[in-house]
Amino acid sequence: MPSFADTTFTDPSRIRNFCIIAHIDHGKSTLADRMLQLTGVVEDRQMRAQYLDRMDIERERGITIKAQNVRLPWVVREGDAAGDQYVLHLIDTPGHVDFTYEVSRALEACEGAVLLVDAAQGIEAQTLANLYLALDKDLTIIPVLNKIDLPAADPDRYAEEIAHIIGCEPGDVLRVSGKTGVGVSELLDHVVQEIPAPVGDADAPARAMIFDSVYDTYRGVVTYVRVVDGSLKPKEKIQMMSTGATHDLLEVGVVSPEPKATQGLGVGEVGYLITGVKDVRQSKVGDTVTSARNGASEPLTGYREPRPMVYSGLYPVDGSDYPDLRDALDKLQLNDAALTWVPETSVALGFGFRCGFLGLLHMEITRERLEREFGLDLISTAPNVVYRVEMEDGTEHVVTNPSYWPEGKTRNVFEPIVKCTIISPSEFIGSIMELCQSRRGELGGMDYLSETRVELRYTMPMAEIIFDFFDSLKSRTRGYASLDYEESGEQASALVKVDILLQGEAVDAFSAIVHKDAAGAYGNKMTTKLRELIPRQQFEVPIQAAIGSKIIARENIRAIRKDVLAKCYGGDISRKRKLLEKQKEGKKRMKTIGRVEVPQEAFVAALSSDAASDKPKK
Predict the structure, then answer these.
(1) In a domain, 149, yes or no
(2) What's the pLDDT tens digit per position in 569-601?
(3) CA distance 250 to 25
(4) According to the annotation, is 122 in a ligand binding site?
(5) Are residues 548 and 521 part of one domain?
(6) Is 141 annotated as a binding residue?
(7) Rounded to 5 degrees, what are φ and ψ at 216?
(8) pLDDT tens, residue by residue, 196-222
């Protein structure tokens, strides 16, 4: 293996920075595996499937959650540059819509992107979304059809589909198989020919963009950077331009695919920095790193801050784990810049955190990572979105939790909306339209990508798609439809707060913000569920759902009754009636002074996002 990959300050003209973008399960990680083998950075005996996916959850679910970068040495095999050596920086990105922020950050560190499409499935919604992200950054796009070895593959048909969207010729679409390795070396040669070399001033003050970071228990914060100008060398002082904090560089290196220390990083190179800092807030994704002495005056353009789409409460089952949960969220936020959190308190669940996520899968993965990586036992409440409420007196309130709903008369309630792109076989158009209209969706347009595939564009309230919309879409289209969504502002809607009353007293934890038309269904669902979960008391307990002072649903938990007539073997009816009246008076008195004790298990079961009716999409 040539030592070219370890050379200090590689000539920028010999560097190619690119990423692989695609829909989920179109073979990005498998193609990256073949590139690792072909370039020789991983020996065959050490090879394993999904080599760059480091987390157990990624390997179990077969999905990429974190973008991973790797440095590959490559000797061109064909063409005018045959025999020349190059350094390829590859970033393998996630495909799921919830991890689009990872993709957008990866694109900032690249000059080109390999657009991967499954030759058996064709273009999906997230393929288009990632393509538009790359085009916005003016990246060079290399269209590639993967899985051409499958019996169901139809490369000619899908090559025409890709050519129609990108504006190239069907013959320009490369054909590879990530599984067998066919066409991968030609793809790497194509990357060298088509993707431009990075541009930067080697003599200018150092400027490097932080595009990712992780927390290592032994070494502290490990920061991944892309050098734009100048160079970074170990043992020198660096400065974070957003905070002004200075640190000593203990180690500089590259990932190939394991970390390797080098003598420094030059223009266009991608690598890691270790400063030994343990404070996770010192290394912010999107920040610019420069030299502490004679550093740059202007920082690089950072990333657009992600806006949380879904909010959910995370609470430790054991209240004493609260400080551990706070530390765990701090460390996880370093690794996942899209996660946001603020402390909150619940009457039912104690101290916890209100966390913002980009979607339901993001929420599910975050909770699972907290439980696995930090040994916590957590309860997550049912997810909801953020509302903006205008009151009659002109004041405004931002509501992230139903318990924060303001008292008084509301003038307008605004809810977030999203633009959905659904790509499906044309035979399912009718059932998709019916589903979207039932979720308050408005059709924005429809295009045929080919004779059999159609793209539908809808504007829908975010609250309508965060629960089971994706599952309903899949079941109505036999799994063939794909969904992508992006935020699109807000709209005024007829929303109300539904309170759940136990014996006339509202229980904050069970409140929800729903559309006026769906309030009755929510009230019936919650009252029925709580009637099954709350144990019977010595007196009858009414469970009511109310909008303000108007009751919209009711269930009763029947009282535990002692058989006071058991000792009466016949005799006059007046004696029996007297005993029943006495019992009735006692129950009435008990009801006025009795309190309904709701067990913790009932709160967990009613609030938990894992409840069957609220099961998040996988």
Answers:
(1) yes
(2) 777 778 778 877 887 777 666 555 446 666 656
(3) 39
(4) no
(5) yes
(6) no
(7) -110, 130
(8) 888 888 888 888 888 777 777 788 888
